[in-house]
Amino acid sequence: MTSPSRWRRGDTAFSLNWDSTYRDLNDPSISKIAGENGVLPTPEGPTGERPGVNGAMALSVASRSKNQDAAWKLIEYLTSEPNQEKFIKSGAPNWKASFEKPEIVATNKPVFDAYKTALQSTILRPPVPGYNNISQALQVELQNALLGKKSPQEALDDAVAAANKE
Description:
Layout: H1 4-8, H2 19-25, E1 53-54, H3 68-78, H4 81-86, H5 102-105, H6 109-118, E2 123-124, H7 131-146, H8 152-165
Parallel strand pairs: 1-2
Helix pairs in contact: 7-8
């Protein structure tokens, strides 16, 4: 994945990134390509689906927390539809109903339009221990295959070996 800073400098043609990146790309104080970029859902694959992963972070309450009820109430508040909508500036909310409210969609229409399409086939990250390390190894090995440094099979075998070390 291309770093947002390289993209803002105009050093790359495209990037797969999060919704807040679009806001930064259109901020002329930090981006050389303000007003010259767009956002789209991932392209359709052979099955017609648009492969993508929901990168949202989960909130949880520790089983040994001494304030479980208060912690849960905070999570309910932070993730509530009205609260999510109050803070929409550059991303998309977690509520489907928000995608139907013109005043919310208007805060970042290109991102909302892309999300509405992409969320139809987006999957959640796999719930595996050590996900971040496994994801990093997979990214490196896929890049090795794309650059021709390794065959696709070698790269995937090495990614599996790295994942099994976790």
